[in-house]
UniProtKB/TrEMBL annotation:
<protein>
    <submittedName>
        <fullName>Putative transcription factor B3-Domain family</fullName>
    </submittedName>
</protein>
<dbReference type="InterPro" id="IPR039218">
    <property type="entry name" value="REM_fam"/>
</dbReference>
<dbReference type="InterPro" id="IPR003340">
    <property type="entry name" value="B3_DNA-bd"/>
</dbReference>
<dbReference type="GO" id="GO:0003677">
    <property type="term" value="F:DNA binding"/>
</dbReference>
<feature type="domain" description="TF-B3">
    <location>
        <begin position="11"/>
        <end position="104"/>
    </location>
</feature>
<dbReference type="InterPro" id="IPR015300">
    <property type="entry name" value="DNA-bd_pseudobarrel_sf"/>
</dbReference>
<keyword id="KW-0238">DNA-binding</keyword>
<keyword id="KW-0804">Transcription</keyword>
<keyword id="KW-0805">Transcription regulation</keyword>
<keyword id="KW-0539">Nucleus</keyword>
<feature type="domain" description="TF-B3">
    <location>
        <begin position="161"/>
        <end position="254"/>
    </location>
</feature>
<dbReference type="Pfam" id="PF02362">
    <property type="entry name" value="B3"/>
</dbReference>
<feature type="region of interest" description="Disordered">
    <location>
        <begin position="117"/>
        <end position="145"/>
    </location>
</feature>
<keyword id="KW-0677">Repeat</keyword>
<dbReference type="GO" id="GO:0005634">
    <property type="term" value="C:nucleus"/>
</dbReference>
<feature type="compositionally biased region" description="Basic and acidic residues">
    <location>
        <begin position="132"/>
        <end position="145"/>
    </location>
</feature>
């Protein structure tokens, strides 16, 4: 009787396009979780293009699972940026082979990317909608609306949508003034109700306030910052992705 030819089990894979706040965590698609070894859901290993491995802790929030502690080091080493495209191929236990594609749609040359960025950090690119940075060498400056910014580096965020970019200070915890051009572009005014959502799919509803002739976000901001475990020096980006819907992005201090 002829023996059946045994074929190795097919490796399961998923892909992620990097956008928004990916530097601290990255969500694993819910449909893919069933392919993981249930006994190994606390940690996994990511093997990069060089063959080097990183141990990454997995964080569960509700029925969602994220690459979390250790993911930041993987991001810095490769240096990943908005627009990169990653394929994660799993061995069925807890090892992922990661293939990285850049904006050219070809595999990313990590060594060349490090040389371009000048470090092991995230490759930073300036969006045309970001406020222009001063050429001054001063360590600090005051933004037009009085919110203190503590970094003169460009922010690694790009979007065709209107957005507000603020470096987190004690004041930003409680209020953020909305620039006039954003107020006009988004049709905002005092009393407008908006929804702010983060990358963990949590959401908050705020009503805009007025201070003299300016519009600002105030009530509820401290709760949003607390829920996302922000710290002074983090860059907080409020992106208007839909009418009255704001996507929250957080770029942690020291990652660019």
């Amino acid at each position: 009787m002829a023996r059946k030819t045994e074929h190795p089990a097919r490796r399961q894979a998923f892909f992620k396009a990097l956008m928004g706040d990916f530097s601290q965590h990255l969500r694993i698609p819910s449909a893919f979780i069933k392919n993981l070894n249930r006994r190994s859901l606390h940690t996994c290993r990511l093997k990069g293009p060089s063959g080097q491995c990183w141990v990454v802790e997995l964080e569960k929030r509700g029925n969602r699972l994220f690459f979390h502690k250790g993911w930041e080091e993987f991001v810095k080493h490769h240096p990943l940026e908005v627009g990169d495209f990653l394929i994660f191929s799993c061995d069925g236990v807890s090892m992922f082979d990661v293939t990285i594609y850049g904006k050219t749609f070809c595999e990313k040359n990590v060594k060349a990317a490090k040389r371009r960025s000048g470090s092991n950090g995230i490759a930073a690119k300036r969006s045309g909608k970001l406020p222009r940075r001063s050429d001054s060498h001063a360590d600090k400056r005051r933004a037009v609306d009085g919110v203190e910014e503590t970094s003169l580096r460009p922010i690694p965020f790009q979007s065709k949508n209107s957005f507000i970019c603020r470096v987190l200070t004690a004041r930003t915890l409680y209020e953020v003034y909305i620039p006039t051009e954003v107020v006009i572009a988004e049709g905002l005014k005092a009393g407008t109700a908006i929804k702010i959502q983060d990358t963990f799919e949590m959401s908050w509803h705020l009503r805009l306030r007025a201070n003299h002739d300016r519009v600002l976000m105030r009530s509820g901001l401290s709760n949003i910052c607390k829920a996302n475990k922000t710290s002074h020096g983090d860059t907080v980006i409020f992106e208007f992705v839909k009418p009255r819907v704001v996507q929250l992005h957080i770029i942690r201090a020291g990652v660019y």
